[in-house]
Amino acid sequence: MRLSTLTSLLLTGALPLTSALAAPKNHDYSSPICNLNKPISLTPDQETYLYNRTYAFKELAPPNPASEQCFNKQAHVRVIILFKRRPDISEDYFHLHWSTVHAELTVAARDFGIHISRYNQFHQTAPDKTLLAPLFAQGLQPAPYDGIAELYAPDMDDFQKFMNGVLRDEPTQKDIVRFVDVAAGLHVMAGYDDLVYGLAAPGMGGSDGIVPGDERLVYSDGGD
Q: pTM of this prediction?
């Protein structure tokens, strides 16, 4: 799939994307956050499995009755693009090029600072894959990607405006084919973060999940 084709699908809505996301409310342990006011249809088995248990972490328990979806939904939409390196370039060059030339072209794009709240690159190297070998032996499968571009935006309208600019930027388009295996396709997901554990990203309007040091966390013998 050509990059322009992928981006066209993104912007025309041919690929399903989450619409603008509202900022979540502050929450406490007695009341889950319910942001998506959509009825949930449950089978008897599903309802029994969800509700016939005692939740030590009350903020993770479903509401009762099941009339809403409850998550610690963070305020910004998140889009990830997963891709492989060109087979004719070295792994070292792939990661170096992406984290320097392409990173600068991305951040230097017109109105990047208006439409994008956070940009992160996830790099996976051969040594990283080796560390996962024990998990592969237990049945997990390696993901066939070398990198994931992760972008946060206030809403999908902002992300689409950013992508429109990228489409029109010839240097950026030419740069992508220098290190990405475009023929293998670029795979995209869009949605939101349900922050279960950890602190919300500063400056992005989200709510903390279960925080480190919470007294309900369980430790092995000798743990603090």
A: 0.76
